[in-house]
Write a structure and sequence with these properties.
The chain has about 140 residues and is α+β, with helices and mostly antiparallel strands. About 30% of the residues lie in helices and about 30% in strands. The chain has one domain. The chain contains 4 helices and 8 strands; from the N terminus they run H-E-H-E-H-E-E-E-E-E-E-H. Strands 1, 2, 3, 4, 5, 6, 7 and 8 form an 8-stranded mixed beta sheet that branches. Strand 6 (about 105-110) and strand 7 form a beta hairpin.
């Protein structure tokens, strides 16, 4: 990967220059979505996030197969703003772990947390080496 491509991908992640994405709930429906998580996903603490970027990782087929075997998808969320975190981790921003399941067009389930996406975000495809260099 050349430097120009690397910098362009980093810029998309941190400056929201990806493709506009209509996932996410409205601010008015946050309390209803939290109630849904508490009722139907009680094993998951919730984290309400905004100003988010959905990152799809570009993978070779053999690496993609490993994700498939583990039941995960090679994508995660980076959110610039944490609105509320049930686990009270004091994060101002957050990067999720890999996607396990996506529900109701706004609930991103990682292995241990239900992230509630609020508002519209952006979606970016990134190379694995970019991710390793900025999210270690």
């Amino acid at each position: 990967m050349d430097l120009k491509s690397y910098l362009a991908q980093v810029d998309q992640i941190f400056n929201g220059d990806g493709v506009s994405c209509d996932f996410g709930c409205s601010e008015a429906s946050v309390s209803d979505m939290i109630a849904h998580i508490k009722e139907y996903l009680p094993a998951y603490p919730y984290c309400v996030i905004a100003d988010w970027v959905w990152l799809d990782i570009k993978l070779e087929p053999e690496i993609q197969a490993l994700f498939d075997i583990r039941g995960a998808k090679p994508c995660f969320i980076f959110a610039h703003k944490v609105i509320e975190d049930q686990a009270q981790r004091s994060f101002k921003s957050v990067r999720t772990t890999y996607l396990q399941e996506f529900q109701k067009n706004c609930i991103f389930l990682s292995k241990n947390t239900a992230y509630l996406l609020v508002g519209r975000g952006t979606r970016v495809s990134v190379d694995p080496q970019v991710l390793r260099s900025i999210f270690f």
